TrEMBL record:
Tree of life domain: Bacteria
The protein's name in its UniProt record: Uncharacterized protein
Example GO BP: regulation of DNA-templated transcription
First and last residues of every TPR repeat: 15-48
Keyword Membrane on entry: yes
Transmembrane segments: 279-299
Organism expressing this protein natively: Segatella copri
Gene3D superfamilies: Tetratricopeptide repeat domain
Gene Ontology terms for molecular function: DNA binding
Length: 444
C-alpha cells in the first residue's frame, strides 16, 4: 500500500498512510521503524495544512520516546501535541497530553512537574464532567505518588477510593495494579490478594508481572523464609539493573536513529536551499527578460492607443469642420424623413406604447443613412457602439424627445441621460453633458 501511494496513488493521502504504518510498527514493538514513518509524516506536511495529523503524530513520537526511556524528548513532543490540541479546542486530547506529560516527568528528577501536569489533567476532566477521563487522570496521578522515590501513601488515599469504585473495563488492569500497590504499602494483605485475583482475571502482562512478584514476596514473608526472600530481592535488583542497561542500549540506538534522521533532514534542507538559490537566479533572469518584454508590449500598446486617439480626434474635427456646411442639408433631410412612413410608424409606436421589432429598427437605420449619408459609418469610424447606443443615436438624429426615446428603448429618462453622457465620453475621450452629445449627433 505504501509503494502504491508513493508511486501513482493520491499524494494527499500519503501522510495518513505513513501515520498508519508508524502506528502498525509501534503496535508490533518495532520502535525504530515506527519512528521512521512518523518522521516521514512530519516531513510531508505542515502544521497549517494538517493540524490534527501534526498533533497526533507528535503524540505518537512522544510515546515511542517515553517507552524507550528518552523522557525529555517525550516531554517536548507531548508539549507540541498539547499546543495543537489547544488550537483545535480538543479538550479530551489536551487531557491525554497533560496526563502523558505528568507520566514523562515522573520518570525524571522533576517530580513537581509530574504532579503539576497530572493535577491539571484531573482538573480539566472534572471541569467537563468526564468521569472516565477523570479516573484515567487519577490513575496516572496515583501511579506517580506510588512509584516515585517520594512515595506518599496519604496523598494517594483521596484518589484511590473514587477510582476503584468506578472502573471502566478497559482501565481495569491499570486501576487494579495501582490498588494492589497501594494496599501493599498500607500493609493490608487481604486487600492485596483481592486485587491480585482481579489482575489474574483481567490484568495485562505488565500488571500480572507486578502481581506475581508481590504475591511471591508475600508468600516468602508468611513462611518467614528470610534467606529466600533476601535472594529473591537480590535477583530483582539485578534483573532491574539488567533491564535498565538493556533499556539504555535501546534508548541509545533509538536516539542515534533519531539523530541520524535529523542529520539527513538537515543535509536535505541544505541541498534544497542550494537548489532553491539556483532556481531563484533562473527565475530572476527570466523575470528580468519578461519585464523587458512587458515594457516593450506596454510601449507598443500605449503608442497604438495614442495613435488611435489621435485618429479619433482628427475624425471628430473633420466632422465638426463639415458640420457648418451640412447644417442646411441636414435641415432639409430632417424635414423629408419626418414626412416618411418609418417616422410615422415610430410616432405610432410611441403613442401605443408598443415594442419596436428588429425589422423596424433596420428600416429606420436604412432611412437615416439614406437621408444623412454615411451617418453610421461616421460614428463607427470613431468607435464601435452597442446596439442600444446606436439606437439612441438614430432617435436623436430624427429629433425625438427624451421621453419618446425612453418609451421606444424601454428605459427610464434618467437612464437615457446617463447613457448619453457615457456615449459622449466614449466618443470624445472626456467628460461632457448629454446635450453636447445631442448637438454633435444632429450635426453629423
Amino acid at each position: 500500500m505504501i509503494s502504491y501511494y508513493e508511486g501513482e496513488g493520491d499524494k494527499k493521502m500519503l501522510p495518513e498512510i505513513y501515520y498508519l504504518a508508524g502506528s502498525t510498527y509501534f503496535d508490533l514493538h518495532d520502535s525504530p521503524q515506527a519512528l521512521d514513518y512518523y518522521h516521514k509524516v512530519l516531513d510531508n506536511i505542515t502544521a497549517d495544512e494538517y493540524l490534527r495529523l501534526w498533533g497526533i503524530t507528535h503524540a505518537q513520537i512522544g510515546y515511542v520516546m517515553l517507552y524507550q526511556g528518552n523522557y525529555m524528548s517525550a516531554v517536548q513532543h507531548f508539549k507540541e501535541s498539547y499546543f495543537v490540541d489547544s488550537l483545535r479546542n480538543d479538550v479530551e486530547g489536551m487531557i491525554y497530553d497533560l496526563r502523558d506529560l505528568g507520566y514523562s516527568y515522573s520518570s525524571t528528577e522533576k517530580l513537581d512537574s509530574a504532579i503539576f501536569y497530572s493535577h491539571r489533567a484531573l482538573q480539566l476532566s472534572l471541569k467537563i464532567n468526564n468521569s472516565k477521563m477523570a479516573n484515567n487522570a487519577m490513575s496516572s496521578l496515583v501511579g506517580i505518588y506510588l512509584d516515585s522515590r517520594f512515595c506518599n501513601v496519604d496523598s494517594v488515599a483521596k484518589y484511590i477510593y473514587p477510582m476503584i469504585n468506578d472502573v471502566e473495563p478497559e482501565d481495569r488492569s491499570g486501576v487494579y495494579c495501582v490498588a494492589m500497590k497501594y494496599y501493599m504499602l498500607r500493609n493490608m494483605p487481604d486487600s492485596v490478594n483481592y486485587y491480585i485475583e482481579k489482575i489474574e482475571k483481567y490484568g495485562e502482562v505488565y500488571a500480572k508481572c507486578d502481581a506475581y512478584r508481590i504475591k511471591l514476596e508475600m508468600m516468602l514473608e508468611q513462611k518467614a523464609d528470610k534467606n529466600k526472600l533476601k535472594v529473591w530481592r537480590q535477583f530483582l535488583n539485578y534483573s532491574d539493573s539488567i533491564e535498565k542497561i538493556t533499556k539504555t542500549e535501546a534508548v541509545s540506538k533509538c536516539q542515534s536513529l533519531y539523530d541520524y534522521t535529523q542529520r539527513v533532514k538537515e543535509n536535505t534542507r541544505l541541498k534544497s536551499e542550494n537548489e532553491y538559490h539556483k532556481l531563484l537566479l533562473i527565475i530572476l533572469g527570466l523575470s528580468a527578460f519578461l519585464l523587458v518584454i512587458l515594457f516593450y508590449v506596454y510601449y507598443t500598446k500605449n503608442k497604438y492607443a495614442k495613435e488611435k486617439q489621435q485618429r479619433q480626434m482628427e475624425e471628430l474635427q473633420h466632422l465638426l469642420d463639415k458640420s457648418t456646411l451640412q447644417v442646411l442639408n441636414n435641415k432639409k433631410a430632417l424635414t423629408r424623413i419626418k414626412e416618411s412612413e418609418i417616422y410615422a410608424l415610430f410616432l405610432g409606436k410611441i403613442r401605443a406604447g408598443q415594442n419596436v421589432t428588429q425589422e423596424e429598427w433596420d428600416k429606420l437605420d436604412k432611412a437615416v443613412n439614406d437621408y444623412f449619408i454615411d451617418f453610421k459609418l461616421k460614428l463607427y469610424r470613431i468607435c464601435k457602439l452597442s446596439d442600444l447606443e446606436y439606437q439612441i443615436c438614430l432617435l436623436l438624429k430624427i429629433e425625438l424627445s427624451l421621453a419618446d426615446i425612453a418609451v421606444l428603448v424601454h428605459r427610464e429618462p434618467s437612464t437615457i441621460t446617463m447613457s448619453r453622457k457615457r456615449l459622449y465620453k466614449k466618443l470624445f475621450q472626456k467628460e461632457g453633458k448629454a446635450e453636447e452629445l445631442d448637438m454633435f449627433i444632429r450635426s453629423v
